[in-house]
């Protein structure tokens, strides 16, 4: 029996209900067979009045089979292209049937799923916020190769289609309707099939309803074809704008733009073939392998709870105490209240706590102004946050998160003062950026319930939480922190204790290598622009100005006090430069009188003092070496974290590096980078860099071990 259920009713309407093996429908071999068979059968059907494509799954259709895409390797181009054409053929035949074909979209249809919908003459979707429509292939380094690029361009016009294709925008049915991507919505699932049938009946004999716009004679692409003067400016500017955005590091958007323009230039069927060629090229690139591995497979692993201890019942947080209503505390209060959790936001004075709560008020007011939230809902969320200056208000909290100054004595003091207010099984989390959790836990009378919950700034935007287990942290405490992170809709990575954990420690090497290049006499602007050239969001010097050198100086002091300084990395140059900036020149970073740069009128200029002190016009380090130094330092530190057990899984290292540190997306994270760079080649390049620039580039032995095993970082 086919996995596509085939039913013909008395009115001559065939309903095809897709119900593949497993939880979702996907474009794999099983689909290919079922679709080819189904289309052939429909073509033979006598007294046919229309066709409906429906789904028996919760999602309409999940898209391409990413396992197949990951497995395709250079040399397989011809067979891959053949498979693609075999997928596209039946879709083209479907849209050429002499009767209307309707997509009855009951749930999310992304990628290949939406491409099936696009090959139907009429698209009706269930109007629900859980239903997402769109073509997000670009976010995995791919292009919509099932006709998505070509049909979207023909449907919406080049200009309107580009954001959906280049940015992979996903939209709810209401928005898709407004954009012209679908034709109709229904308010309940029960209405879906009856509406589809009603549409077919209402259009019996209407020839136009059975022909796609692009197959009708005299069809013109909305907004004109590629030679239209109206598009001349777009076509001239788009490649440059795209290159500025991707910095030439991401082949997928370039291919998509190329295919989209071709779709507006050549005939429909030729365009489909160009699109197949585009996907065939992309699927073999290391960037696509990296992005699929990390952003799909490893992300699912992490959000699915692979790093959560098994066998512990879900731990719902009901009341959280947030200590410190500064930059981080106010953000933590906001995300917690948004997730329906009661919050006690405590600072040293009620005034300070109320200022912290005002942050939530400000963010919610913006939502209300944009029509994304009702005034009632806003009031309800605000009412969940109780500002306070009293420890007694923490009574009954099942979670406390500390976000006071990065000062070990202060943290110790408040641990002792507040711990007793927790529920019996309550856990106490520190949002410290660097301080070892095991050592902080010495001040706790219940170290098993003590854990690190490290947020990133700004808390409301940054999607990651780094959970740090101290030596005595229990599995239950970890499960509770993990579930809390999911409750506030963040992605949690779980790491073991170390100074700077995984993210701060690895990011520190980026600052350090930047500072070393300054000390070696390189021009600061060049260092920053080469940092961006590898795909980091900002250069190492600019980002250190943002984080603040003053904070780093204080951190060094604290580490010395705790006896943990210099436990990793080599930071002598960084210390020298920080001392030069902060102690000698009173420059502690962007918000502390400037750092490497001066900040005036919203812009920044290089501070001449740094040039006078360090710049040497004769200094020569090849650009490629600068780029690799900035990248490899971070990759090597990540490998060391894996080798020493700070990182518990490769997935945590990849997701943590992209979402917490800003590792370039094309790498798929700092560990995945090594896989596609090639382990042996990585070892060789490390040796070259170590030879020229020092031992910090020595390749961690875990790479050699993987080579011997014949495996990779998975
Ligand atoms: P902040 O200076 O903005 O806020 C600290 C707040 O703590 C202040 O409002 C202060 O009044 C309050 N406070 C001090 N003593 C207190 C006490 N005894 N009880 C209650 N409140 C008290 O600092 P921040 O940037 O929010 O950082 C807080 C913590 O988060 C630090 O440990 C920091 O390392 C960590 N962190 C910061 C970032 C970041 O990007 N800023 C990122 C991750 C982690």
From TrEMBL:
Which reaction(s) are listed as its catalytic activity? a (3S)-3-hydroxyacyl-CoA + NAD(+) = a 3-oxoacyl-CoA + NADH + H(+)
Q: Where is the 3-hydroxyacyl-CoA dehydrogenase C-terminal domain?
A: 500-599
Q: Which Gene3D superfamilies match?
A: 1.10.1040.50, 2-enoyl-CoA Hydratase, Chain A, domain 1, NAD(P)-binding Rossmann-like Domain
The answer to keyword Repeat applying to this record is no
User: Which controlled-vocabulary keywords does the entry list?
Assistant: Fatty acid metabolism, Lipid degradation, Lipid metabolism, Lyase, Multifunctional enzyme, NAD, Oxidoreductase
One GO MF annotation is: long-chain (3S)-3-hydroxyacyl-CoA dehydrogenase (NAD+) activity
Domain 3-hydroxyacyl-CoA dehydrogenase NAD binding, by residue range, is 319-497
State the Gene Ontology BP annotations. Answer: fatty acid beta-oxidation
Which pathway is this protein engaged in? Lipid metabolism; fatty acid beta-oxidation
Which PANTHER family does this chain map to? Answer: TRIFUNCTIONAL ENZYME SUBUNIT ALPHA, TRIFUNCTIONAL ENZYME SUBUNIT ALPHA, MITOCHONDRIAL
Task: Give the family from UniProt.
Answer: In the central section; belongs to the 3-hydroxyacyl-CoA dehydrogenase family.
Name-wise, this protein is 3-hydroxyacyl-CoA dehydrogenase
The scientific name of the source species is: Zhongshania aliphaticivorans
């Amino acid at each position: 029996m086919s996995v596509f259920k085939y039913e013909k009713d008395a009115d001559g309407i065939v309903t095809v209900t897709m119900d593949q093996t497993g939880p979702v429908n996907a474009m794999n071999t099983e689909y290919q067979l079922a679709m080819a068979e189904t289309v052939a059968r429909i073509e033979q059907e006598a007294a046919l009045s229309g066709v409906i494509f429906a789904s028996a799954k919760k999602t309409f259709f999940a898209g391409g089979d990413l396992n197949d895409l990951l497995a395709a390797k250079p040399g397989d181009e011809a067979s891959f292209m053949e498979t693609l054409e075999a997928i596209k053929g039946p879709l083209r035949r479907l849209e050429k049937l002499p009767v209307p074909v309707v997509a009855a979209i009951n749930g999310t249809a992304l990628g290949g799923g939406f491409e099936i919908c696009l090959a139907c003459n009429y698209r009706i979707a269930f109007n629900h916020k859980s239903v997402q429509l769109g073509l997000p292939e670009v976010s995995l380094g791919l292009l919509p190769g099932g006709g998505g690029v070509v049909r979207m361009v023909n449907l919406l016009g080049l200009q309107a289609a580009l954001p959906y294709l280049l940015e992979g925008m996903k939209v709810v049915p209401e928005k898709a309707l407004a954009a012209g991507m679908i034709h109709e919505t229904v308010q309940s699932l029960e209405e879906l099939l009856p509406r589809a049938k009603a549409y077919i009946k209402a259009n019996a004999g209407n020839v136009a309803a059975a022909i796609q716009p692009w197959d009708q004679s005299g069809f013109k692409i909305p907004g004109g074809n590629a030679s239209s003067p109206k598009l001349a400016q777009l076509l001239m500017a788009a490649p440059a704008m795209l290159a500025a955005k991707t910095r030439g590091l991401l082949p997928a958007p370039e291919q998509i733009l190329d295919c989209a323009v071709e779709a507006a230039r050549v005939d429909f069927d030729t365009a489909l073939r160009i699109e197949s060629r585009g996907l065939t090229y992309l699927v073999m690139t290391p960037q696509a392998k990296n992005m699929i591995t990390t952003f799909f497979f490893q992300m699912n692993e992490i959000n699915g709870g692979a790093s959560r201890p098994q066998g512990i019942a879900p731990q719902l947080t009901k009341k959280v105490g947030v200590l410190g209503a500064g930059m981080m505390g106010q953000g933590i209060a906001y995300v917690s209240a948004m997730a329906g959790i009661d919050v006690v936001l405590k600072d040293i004075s009620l005034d300070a706590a109320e200022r912290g709560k005002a942050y939530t008020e400000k963010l919610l007011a913006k939502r209300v102004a944009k029509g994304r939230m009702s005034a009632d809902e806003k009031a309800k969320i605000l009412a969940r946050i109780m500002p306070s200056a009293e420890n007694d208000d923490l009574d009954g909290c099942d979670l406390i998160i500390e976000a006071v100054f990065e000062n070990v004595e202060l943290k110790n003091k408040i641990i002792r003062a507040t711990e007793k207010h927790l529920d019996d099984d309550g856990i106490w989390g520190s949002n410290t950026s660097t301080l070892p959790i095991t050592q902080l836990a010495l001040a706790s009378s219940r170290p098993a319930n003590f854990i690190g919950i490290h947020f990133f700034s700004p808390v409301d935007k940054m999607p990651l939480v780094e959970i740090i287990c101290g030596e005595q942290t229990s599995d239950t405490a970890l499960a509770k922190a993990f579930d809390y992170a999911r409750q506030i809709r963040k992605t949690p990575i779980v790491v073991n204790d170390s100074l700077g954990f995984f993210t701060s420690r690895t990011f520190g090497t980026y600052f350090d290598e930047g500072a070393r290049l300054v000390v070696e006499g390189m021009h600061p602007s060049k260092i920053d622009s080469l940092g961006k050239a590898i795909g980091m969001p900002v250069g190492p010097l600019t980002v250190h100005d943002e984080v603040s050198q003053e904070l780093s100086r204080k951190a060094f002091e604290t580490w010395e006090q705790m006896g943990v300084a210099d436990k990793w990395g080599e930071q002598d140059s960084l210390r020298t430069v920080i001392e030069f900036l902060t102690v000698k020149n009173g420059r502690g970073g962007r918000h502390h009188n400037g750092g490497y740069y001066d900040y005036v009128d919203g812009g920044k200029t290089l501070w001449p003092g740094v040039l006078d002190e360090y710049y040497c016009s004769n200094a020569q380090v090849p650009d490629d070496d600068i780029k690799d130094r900035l990248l490899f330092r971070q990759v090597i530190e990540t490998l060391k974290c894996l080798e020493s057990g700070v990182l518990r899984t490769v997935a945590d290292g990849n997701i943590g590096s992209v979402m917490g540190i800003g590792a370039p997306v094309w790498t798929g994270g700092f560990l995945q980078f090594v896989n596609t760079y090639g382990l042996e080649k990585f070892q060789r390049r490390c040796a070259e860099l170590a030879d020229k620039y020092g031992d910090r580039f020595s390749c961690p032995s875990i790479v050699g071990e993987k080579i011997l095993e014949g495996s990779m970082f998975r």
